[in-house]
């Protein structure tokens, strides 16, 4: 079973690339982020035409997350995280699909920092930690997949100095990410690729793609029951170089079937 996470950076603008990627790679489960689409304008017909059922939590012009499943419909468990009733950002959706509990996550960026956006990022991460503990308590095979907007270590960025002031790699961001991992989640990519550069994002600016000046912010975290089934994990890097591609590349893990 192949499960992928993909920040599409606008599903309507990138729809041809998304459908192309679905056709060529045929993942079983896909977690999408940054739809930039309202619930009403989500391209459900196109997704179904590609052979995928879908659930989504949209927001016009910003944010937005979805879960796709090949040949079936995911069953919604929840949309949004508890803890801040006034938070209207569409950043979290969770479903039961193909025997897994799956969450699609679009964690706040947090820039500029310090400031209220960074404070919101840290609060959001703590809310995610609480939900992650609840999922672990259910003892189901689970995957928390998405754009975490966290560079976990200096080995996950082309230049630590260049990103030193960015919210993505502040000590506070990294501490909250490690706190999540230490609950018992396994980082699929680093399990299969423990050393060396492996990027998931290249900015559109300053020739970042051409210089391979990227970093790793898209993660698949596996519960123990899912991690026991991990076969492989990698990044579909080549798709980032296609015309009008997202600035992220799809990141995926393969789990052994039960």
From TrEMBL:
This is Exodeoxyribonuclease III. SUPFAM superfamilies: DNase I-like. GO terms for molecular function: DNA binding; double-stranded DNA 3'-5' DNA exonuclease activity; endonuclease activity; metal ion binding. The record marks 248 as: Interaction with DNA substrate. It holds the Pfam family Exo_endo_phos. Keywords: Hydrolase, Magnesium, Manganese, Metal-binding. The record marks 218 as: Important for catalytic activity. CDD domains: ExoIII-like_AP-endo. NCBIfam families: exoDNase_III, xth. PROSITE patterns: AP_NUCLEASE_F1_1, AP_NUCLEASE_F1_4. The record marks 149 as: Transition state stabilizer. Probably binds two magnesium or manganese ions per subunit. Residues 4-248 form the Endonuclease/exonuclease/phosphatase domain. Its cofactor is Mg(2+); Mn(2+). Mg(2+) binds at residues 7, 34, 147, 149, 247-248. Belongs to the DNA repair enzymes AP/ExoA family. InterPro entries: AP_endonuc_1 (IPR004808), AP_endonuclease_F1_BS (IPR020847), Endo/exonu/phosph_ase_sf (IPR036691), Endo/exonuclease/phosphatase (IPR005135), ExoIII-like (IPR037493). It comes from Sphingomonas sanxanigenens DSM 19645 = NX02.
